[in-house]
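Anyone up for a design puzzle?
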């Protein structure tokens, strides 16, 4: 079943292309829909992107059915929120988000493909924000190309907000600050590192709780670089507990103590800000109990 979006023009002296630009519809998606006959004005097929609009005209964009492009696999998922365009999931740790060369099955995308199949959602699986395999928490999938480009644009423009919790080594002298250290590929390995000629990378943090020799931080990323939080906290001298890549193993938790706790964004079809949260998982909650008791 096709999904459609209706937009009402209230302006004067705008053509179809100009109007859709004011509605944050990407030019690429518009061209594709126009070419495939999926754009209508007042129920009549639009044939030209330069068609002049009148105040009160209704533009309908139809999202055509697509074939699911990833093998569906019946895997349990925890849905935090869903609407016509977006699916928000509380990702479990130790789960790869998308199939790779080395991991082809049992990924979160395989689970979402099965959910789409079972619920007659005829769409490709589109991941909007990614999380590392061992990081838990809020992750977004789009149910159509409109939902994907709407939320991706908010992330690009920094109007959407992603927050995380991390349990780190040590007590920070500065309790609230901004880390602005560029990140790029290391010259001597395939990994990422702090380097002056890297890409701009900005992370805000504040201390939430302090224990004997560790702290719980809330973090907000203003850029989305690979391993950004993990690298920035290592650079600060307070690596994440359990992070075997940038710190060391921990007997009290078998992964990095990093959790994507919330995301805030404007809904795709109405002017309303939505905040979705995922509670701390059991393993991080248990780690905090152990640290408090030390």
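Challenge accepted. My sequence:
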């Amino acid at each position: 079943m096709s999904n459609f979006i209706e937009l009402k023009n209230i302006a004067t002296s705008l053509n179809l292309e100009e109007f859709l630009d004011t509605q944050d519809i990407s030019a690429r998606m518009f061209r594709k829909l126009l070419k495939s006959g999926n754009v209508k004005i007042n129920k009549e097929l639009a044939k030209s992107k330069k068609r002049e609009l009148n105040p009160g005209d209704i533009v309908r964009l139809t999202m055509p059915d697509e074939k699911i492009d990833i093998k569906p696999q019946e895997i349990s998922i925890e849905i935090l929120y869903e609407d016509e365009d977006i699916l928000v999931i509380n990702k479990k740790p130790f789960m790869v988000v998308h199939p790779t060369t080395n991991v082809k099955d049992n990924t979160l995308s395989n689970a979402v493909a099965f959910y789409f199949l079972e619920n007659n959602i005829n769409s490709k699986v589109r991941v909007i924000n990614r999380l590392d395999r061992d990081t838990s928490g809020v992750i977004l999938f789009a149910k159509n190309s409109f939902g994907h480009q709407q939320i991706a644009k908010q992330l690009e423009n920094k109007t959407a907000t992603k927050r995380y919790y991390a349990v780190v080594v040590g007590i920070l002298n500065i309790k609230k600050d901004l880390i602005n250290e560029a990140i790029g590929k290391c010259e001597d390995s395939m990994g990422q590192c702090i380097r002056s000629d890297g890409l701009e990378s900005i992370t805000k943090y504040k201390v939430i709780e302090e224990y004997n020799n560790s702290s719980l931080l809330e973090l907000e990323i203003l850029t989305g670089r690979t391993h950004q939080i993990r690298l920035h906290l290592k650079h600060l001298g307070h690596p994440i507990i359990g992070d075997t890549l940038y710190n060391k193993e921990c007997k009290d938790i078998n992964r990095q103590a990093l959790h994507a706790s919330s995301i805030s964004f404007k809904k795709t079809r109405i002017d309303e800000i939505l905040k979705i949260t995922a509670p701390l998982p059991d393993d991080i909650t248990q780690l905090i109990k152990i640290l408090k008791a030390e």
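A detail worth pointing out: Helices lie at 16-22, 27-35, 108-118, 145-157, 228-236, 282-293.
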